[in-house]
Each structure stands twice: as structure tokens, then as C-alpha cells.
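Q: Entry one of two.
A:
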Amino acid sequence: MEGLLNGAIKSSSPISSLLAVIAEYPTVQRLQWMGIEALANMAPGNAEAREQIANNGGPKIVVDAMLQFPDDEKVQAKGCWAMANGIQDQEAVWVGQGAISALTRAVNNATECGGRDGVTQKQYDSAASRFMIASRAFKNLIFDKAAAEEAQKCDTAAVLTRGVETFQKDPMAQWRGEEAIGKIQSLLE
């Protein structure tokens, strides 16, 4: 797996090559999260990379991986991270490929994990981190009224509200969650 991913990254077209590898092995969990993590790391501060990711099917590949592995913490976390880093200037493409629904499910899953009886501090912190990253992605993803309406259909604000209540011990998670809720509400007014 590492060889396939490294070969793609070192190729003359790293983003399209990486996306091709991820798409070729949709049922290989480790390859999915590793590949998505590489995409997430290529996007920050790089408008050209974000455009290439969007134009080469990246949003659908990330969303599909999150659907394929709904309970895999790494796939969900890396998918949220890819969205948080990769949607700027490409929001409509991500929304059109189901990112709002995938992020809402990821937030719901993180909230359930963080709120379980007997949850360890490590599990709570991991769930809070996923919630915070997904909330950060929502803040950017919900860019217009149509996106806010899509979030409304997915009951995103209610899911985020449950997360804010669950992660009361994590001020950053609460702040990001409330910020995303506010963004949705302001666009729906």
C-alpha cells in the first residue's frame, strides 16, 4: 500500500495519480485513510491543489470512503480533515458530491463515541478532535443559502448541537461546533 501511495505522490501528476490509487482500492481501509490523509496535506494554502482534487473526483472519493467505512475512526477523521483543508474555493463541488451528509454522519458518530458510558479520556479526546475538525469543515462548506438548506435537510444543526453538549470539556470543539451552527442559522435567516 505504501508503495502504491508513494509512487503516486512521486509521479508527475501526484494528485490525479493519488486519487486514481484511492479509487482503485475502495475496500482497503488502510489505503483509504492513508491516501485521504495525503490529499488533506496537499490542500492547505494551495489553491491549485484544491482545484485539482475537486476536478479529479476527490470529493466523491472522500465521501465514498466515509460511507464505506462509517465506523472507522481513521477514515472518518482523515475524511473530515480532507474536507476542512480541501474545500476552500471548491465548496460547490464538495456540496454536490454529498459532503454535507458525510460530515453530518461523521459528527453524529463522533458524538456517539464521545458520549458513551465508560468512554476513556483518549476515546473522548479523539472523538472531540473529529467533531472539531468536522465543525471547522462545516463552517467553510456551508457557503451559501443552498448549502445551508442542504444542511437543514440533513439535520446538521441538531447533530452539531448534540456534539456541543457532549463535548463540554473541550472548549475548542464547542467553539467550532457553535461557529458552524451559527453559520447555518445565519444563512437560513
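Q: Entry two of two.
A:
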Amino acid sequence: MPGIVLLLAAFYILTSIFSDNSVSEARWKIFAVALVVTVLLITISNANETLAGLAIACAVAALVAWLGLVFWIKVRMWQAVKIAGSYIGIAIGLSLVLALLLGSPTH
């Protein structure tokens, strides 16, 4: 649960940093895109718990984030690429940290 909240907050913060648009005007749209992208990322990676599954989940999440940012929130294309790429990087880093902290010890 803390991972989901951190990912949602990260998407919102990245959008506010990299976007020229006023974030306050599209606050609920940003939250909706962040929620969809986060749920997709978690669902796909949990359905296929391999490295290929994680790669597919990241690719799908990045594409959906980019589409939502460009066509719904009206962020410029390259800004959307920066936001989606940074979000995926944070998601991978967060999953590694959580796996190290919460992983089961080997016997």
C-alpha cells in the first residue's frame, strides 16, 4: 500500500515539475492517469512475475501514461516522455528497494 501511494505522488510531482501546464487546472485528470498507470503496472507485473513481465508492464504503463498526458491532459510530447520515463524509473527503483526491505530472508 505505501508503494502505491508513493507512485501516485511521484507521478503528480513529476507532472508538476516537467509540465508547462498549470497542474491545479488538471489535478483530478493527473490523479486519474496516475491511478490507471499504477494499477496497470502492478497488475501486469504481478500476473507475470518474470523479468519479461516487468518489462512488458513498464512498456504498457509508459505508453498509457504518455497517451494520457498528451491527449487528455494536453502536455507536450517530449514533456510527456520525460514524465513517463521518470515515473517508470522511480517505479523500478521503488520496487527494488521494497523487495530488498520486505523480501523474505533466504535459509
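A: Comment on entry two: Residues 77-102 form the longest helix (26 residues). Residues 2-97 form one domain.
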